[in-house]
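Notebook B, p. 112. Complex prediction, attempt 2.
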Amino acid sequence: MIRALRRPLKSTEATAAVEAAIFAPIFVVFTLGIADLGVGTFVGMQVNAAAQAGAAYAVINSGSSGSCASLTATCISDVQTAMNNATGNSSFCTASAQNPTPCPVSFNSCADPNGGICFLVTANYVYSPILPGAIYSWAQSQTYSSTATVRIQ
Amino acid sequence: MISQSKNRFWKCSAGAVAAVTAIVLPVILGFASLGTEVGHWYFTQRVMQGSADAAAISATAQYIHDVEAGSPSTTTYQQVGVNYASLNGGFTIPTSNVCLVTSSSNNCASVLTLDSRAIVCASPPCVVVEITQNTATWLSTKASFQPGVGQIVRAIPTPTLMARAVVSTNESTVTVTTNGADCILALANASNAVTVEGGGDLLAKCGVAIDGGIDQNANGTPLGGINFAGSNAKAEIASLVISGNYTQNQECLYSNGQHCYLYDPNKSPPAGTGSTTVLPASDFLSNTATQDPYAATVDAMFQSGGVGIPPLGVASGGVTIHTPGSRYTNGTRIFTVQGGNYTAPAKIVATVSGGTVTAILGVYDPGAYKTMPGTFPAGTPDTGGGSGATFSFTEGCFTWPGTSVGGVAWTPIAGRKYCSIFNHGQQTINFPTGNYWIAGGDSNCVGLCQSGNNALMTSAVAGVTFFLTNGEGSGTYGTSSYATMSIQSGTVNLCSPGTNCGTTCTNSTTTSCMLVIQNPAAPLSTGLKTINNTVVGNGKNTLAGLVYLPKQTFSTVGGASIGGCFGVIAYYVDIGGTPTFSNGCLPGNGIGGGTTTTTTFSTPYLYQ
């Protein structure tokens, strides 16, 4: 009986399968983790680009005859269109599960001690990783956010 | 035995995956690590560029603000750039990473040290923001590795990330010229800088400005104002602008009566008996500066080479005979002096007897010299032959000869330096067009004088300008004596160049529209009644042009009226008659006018 139990431990058959079974999950988790990190970085860059594109549009069109001479509905719409274009996603600034507070734009006195009038353009995006949070706790669903603050006066 | 062991090792397949994993895992981890960190760099680079863009645009907004506020040299824009680099991504940069490129210079040496790429700014001014990050200091980069040749792993590269933003804004300068609305400017820092006395009526189809205490007396408390010293005194004017902090009631009420009225061409004299419309509050300004628009121009006139410096000439009584000569035609001869650098040579009246010059009767024309003739110059007679006569000259001012010199009829000559110009009596003087310098005065008159009820001074339509300046030498009428104007009676009808004795003036030459210009070095009137320049009497005078007396009082007394397109700039203005002022004949842009240069900028745009 004991001899029968020891036989598999002493056997060298299918050792590759056993070792592969041990290391394969590690490789899978590692590979998907890298992929998540890459996609997350991409989303972060998109969010950053969207905020900057929106702010750039607002600055360029902040002259007296521009659509963003003041914060009108047209200005906000145009800024959000610029943000959509920057991300290649025509609904980036449309409310959704990934974007619950779509692309807020404000036009206020600057917080900087030197004063002035500032445009604040914010882009948000909620990213859900491929792997569930139980495996990568640090890669759980998270919100990428970027705010561009630009003084125009 | 060793050989047997080797064979067993190579034949054994146990632990093969572990061995392969041990070899491959560092390679995989290395490439994964490198890829991840490079991705991190690109992401950071993207954020850095966005931050630099936002910082440069914000710094440009501050720069535009500073230039428009008249402080183009302030460097607040650098701090703003630093602040917005921090706000957009949390990057901490020194102020030297924010620099300015103008068409003539830049302060970007530090930026170029960090990042040697050329700064592209084809349309200055440009604000440049440079953000750099040294990945060698990052923990993530330090912790990353890559497969190595000849070694299992090695450190990854550590590049310095750089992001530069260049923001340009088109700068344009707009010059706006406005004409002033005033024709009287008093400069004294006194509440009675303009005083209307007795029954005086200050009639002005234009504004009255008093600047004492602001531009002309910048160190004092502004006190300049108008004062009415007589229950019948009044001002009928277009506006009143004073430097003092007085209300309209404080300025215009006297004995509880209103004295400031709005000039009305249909009611103000001579058309009517007087305006009854109180000067509107909108036409009254206090605490307001009015620059003397001609100060710099006139100062320059009296500097070396300026038009206010009189030419050299032969002093009256300063001629003696050195050599009598021979073969001249007997009689009274006018000799033209030879030599010297002149625009007009001197002429002397002399007696010739026996063919030789026997006596000097007077100076007919003092000449206008830059360099006087040398020692004992010869003279050429007006008629006949002869030669050999030479003379000795003394330089100095020319005493007004009246109507004749040595029995030869004389009329005024423009372009000469006179000791004084006076008309005491019943005669008429008609001044040919040109400049008349009056230097220091003499016993006849300290400047430009007239007395006698029938005395009359007129000028050519092409206009004249009188320069009132100081004399020469140490005598009573020497360098410390400055000419003034004193019209005590009679009539003066004088026009400045460019007016054609009309109601407007064409400003085309240095002296256009300038009738009387006193040297600004003249002694100061310490009160309303000190060192007066007066127009007195009952004459009906016409003056076309500006009377400029920046250090002294201009006073009208009695029933004398002054018409024409006449303006005054004086230290004090004392009105006792009914002068009529107009801004139609002031030089340039007039009083209260000027040129304003405004710098404007286009919306900033990213250039690099």
